[in-house]
Amino acid sequence: MADKKTKNVFKKGAISSDFIGTSIAKHQSKTTIGAHNIFLGQVRADVIDNKTVAAIEYTAYEDMANEKFHAIREATFKKFDLTCMHIYHSLGTVKAGEICLFVFASSPKRKIVFKAIEYIVEAIKADVPVFGKEIFEDETHQWKVNK
Q: pLDDT digits over 20-44, tens only?
């Protein structure tokens, strides 16, 4: 599955449960898969300086970010025996409680997908130029710091 062309991983707004469910269901015909693992990043209603985060507005250097996502994908296929892997990230406003990152990995063996998902998510956080502006309930905002 490696060496595919760079694709756009961005979705406008929150990633819906219908989209996630459909993505998983599409893999039922792939009978060499023995395990799937998913990571869902959800916007938290953090309280910062006595103000509650109501949403995060995501922006990115899209071309550069898609290249980074592609590089992570290629490196992951070289490192792990995966059958397939998908990454989707939100752009625009995502409310607290909604999904902003969906990572889905499949492999013949379960232990591989656990390690692969952690590797992918950590690489995304470290390397991909996606930025989040925290929007508070009082409509003030600040740039999010990844931790």
A: 999 999 998 999 999 999 999 999 9
Q: Are strands 130-136 and 51-60 parallel, antiparallel or unpaired?
A: antiparallel
Mean per-residue pLDDT for 87-107?
98
DSSP annotation string for 4-19 = PPP---EEESPPPHHH
Contact 59/91 with Cβ under 8 angstroms?
yes
74 burial via Cβ count (<10 Å: 0-12, 13-18, 19+): middle
Distance CA 64, CA 128 (A): 8
Q: What pLDDT shows up at residue 2?
A: 46
- Reported CATH class of domain 10-143: alpha beta
Q: How far apart are CA 87 and CA 104, in angstroms?
A: 7
- d(CA 70, CA 114) in angstroms, rounded, equals 20
Return the pLDDT at 35. Answer: 96
Domain limits of the chain?
10-143
For the chain, the helix, strand and coil percentages under 3-state DSSP, each to the nearest 5? 30, 35, 35
